[in-house]
Predict the 3D structure of the following.
Amino acid sequence: MINIGKAKEEFIRYTSEFDISEPHLDRKLYHSFRVMDNCTEIAKSLNLQEDDINLASLIGLLHDIARFEQWKQYNTFYDIKSFDHGDMGVSILKDNNYIRKYVEDDQYDNLIYIAIRNHNKYKIEDGLTDRELLFAKIIRDADKLDIFYEIDTIFYNPPEKVELINNSVLCDEYYESFMNNQQILKKKDETAFDRFVSTLSFIYDLNYDISLNMIRENDYCEKTISKIHFEDENSQTRFNNIINLFYKTIKKEV
């Protein structure tokens, strides 16, 4: 039996050891809570049993546990400049059997580790069982849903962040990937326009109808999209094509 209330208390205790007054860490704390709730909603939509709903919720709570240590050590959330936060999250939970603080029964351990290790990868590793794949898919959708939520509320809320997009260009590789319905494989050097489109491309890695429905019904990205306008005709045309395909994918009429 997984006690989500008790697990949440332990997570709050763990994160309190870091400087949660730091806005970036405070954001990750609430991101973890929202992803936990997203996992719950997705699991319920799949008509999973109560134990599996709780397991999905716990994975959502713990998926970014390494982010706090990452910021403490490197002052960044860029894995390429620090460490892979999915892999490190598994290491933290394994260290001194810390996972027992969250769940008493070890029958769930491997499912938790696999889901967390795979949540931030470009694609899910091969060779997983159907059950392992289920929880890996749930957390990936739940995490991406909150990223879409944060586009308007955090990432591009300051007007100057949108202006960076308006004054940049999109590389051919990213444009072609998006228009071919492919999640974009990020590169090191990106423009602001590149980063925005690569985030939008997460829609191509969503696994469940409820995820697309949540983006549509909550109007995720709408505020940011409405503020983006290019003086360059080619950039504006590309942007229009991308947004039209984005709306088509989430089945939103425009």
In short: The chain has two domains: 4-142, 156-249. The radius of gyration is 19 Å.
